Amino acid sequence: MATKIENWREKELSIEEVFDKYKEIPKIVILKTDVHRRGYILSEKAQKLFNEGDYQSQADTIFGKKEGENKIPIGLIFRDGTSLVGGYLTNYGIRDPYVIDEIDGKFYLTDNGKVYEEVDFWREPDFYRKKTSKGTPMGEVVNVRPQRLNVAISRVCHFWDKPGEGCKYCNVGINGIDSVKHGIPDLFDYDEVAEAVAEAVKQKGRFAMIMVTTGSILTGEHIFDDEVDEIIKAFEKLKPIFKTHDLKVQLIASAYDKEQLKRLKEATGIIGYTSDIEVLNKDLFNWICPGKAAHVGYDEWKKRIFDAVEIFGEGNVNSGIVGGVELAQPNGFKTEEEALEKYLAEAEDFAKHGVPIAYIVWGVCGIFHNQVVPSLDYYVALAKGLNEINDKYNLKSYFDDYRRCGNHPNTDIGRIYW
Amino acid sequence: MSVTLTQEVIDVINSKDTAKVLATIDKDGRVNVAFKGSLHYEDGLLVVNELLETSQTNKNLTYSLWFDKEVAAVFHGPGAAEYQIKGIPRKVLIEGPIYEKAYIAAQERNSDNDLAGVWYIEPTEFRNLTLPVRIAEQKEKYPIIGHLDKDVNPEYYK
Predict the structure, then answer these.
(1) Domains and CATH numbers, chain A
(2) pTM (2 d.p.)
(3) What number of C-beta contacts closer than 8 Å exist between A and B?
(4) CATH of the domain at B62
(5) Which tens digits make up the pLDDT trace of A260-315?
(6) Interface ipTM
(7) Does A384 touch chain B (CB under 8 A)?
(8) Order of strands, edge to edge, in the sheet holding A357-361?
(9) Structural domain total, chain B
């Protein structure tokens, strides 16, 4: 049950006031950020139109939609090409969600009766309902964003193996453990993944990037050796699909040592590498990501990301954070002003080492399900500050932009600076 | 602000033999001009297929969409016809059936082509820049402008 903020509209700047305060930030990006922060629901009319459309939905792809059930959207796209990843019922119950309504056969974001922007939902790709040679619907093997294929290696993040070591903002660990309990294998079947990817890329113009990610695998002679081995095994199946050695792939994974990074780059041809520091403060990292702190440590995780720039090259490495989690209580920053100051200072240290930071809007879940996300003012200030740092250090991360990812307000803004 | 174009103008804009140029500005107000052969008129909007994600035009169109800034296109037809249309980018498609169709068409022209987006620009102003038309306009509105030698009476010098 979420913690509701009573009379929240009276306690923070309205979106119109935020538009006025940050005139240099596009309204669409501010709106997207707020929709992510507050979540959205569909009006009855919009739900009917959505049900009839050829849109991607959670119910269709993962759990199997039953006759008569409403389809559940998984993402929005705005008229500037900006995506909103998820957002349906995100942070539901903390503040009031936006309502997507149907007007003259189109979808519009509304709040308190005011119409803000026309939006659309993500479309289902051609391959989604086809089946692998083993009979699995391909949409269950590989999922997608408007221009991106998402490939996973391990469903389970093994930082959750020891009670109390999972990242507190995350539900991937909990869901992964749950899947394995229900007999679903820990690792994806790479033959099926390759079949789905090979089918997906037949659709011309549909995909510009493959994002490969995995739950952390801690075993091996050195921590993450087995994780790197698994990724290389998956690429043995994926590489023959393409004619180039270097692949338009972003890997989002654990922080590897230099030897692991070299081995990975050489064997796979991955161009972009992301290892998420998640929390830009050592003390808070130790509290919020206890497993990562115990097995690797903040300073070492950070150093490994910096080292990756040497291997992958500047512009091909970045790091993500869960924006807002730094204000989780009781140990988080006590004010948004303090959080912003400390966070931007630490982000600048990353930038000095060639690593831009990309943030996502925190959707409360997992151990932190009772927390509340910060104000829109804070999120916009964070996006503005991070973009200014990236601009100052001339850092570009095209591989994690509005098209190839769509989940970072600050890289949304960055597209006119690069 | 609605702009209505005659069929004659639309035909020039949509002709493959017309030279088409798009001028845009960046966030610092610096101007950028580029030939855009794909510019055409469709259902009341100018449409341009931008091939390059990193082009200055692509960035500037994004900037103009975000902040309601005008861009300007000029069209020079096979004859003397020359038109200028100003407008504001309202939408870009980066996925979906229309985008994919334009992507395939771009690839058919050159297999190395990619496609950043299909941009839709709402016209805000139309000007006929065809030289004889402009000369006539200037004579009508500003009769004092122009060089004297053009006005001399040749009879006087005989």
Answers:
(1) 24-121 (no CATH), 138-414 (3.20.20.70)
(2) 0.95
(3) 56
(4) 2.30.110.10
(5) 999 999 999 999 999 999 999 999 999 999 999 999 999 999 999 999 999 999 99
(6) 0.94
(7) no
(8) A143-145, A148-152, A209-213, A247-252, A270-274, A317-323, A357-361
(9) 1
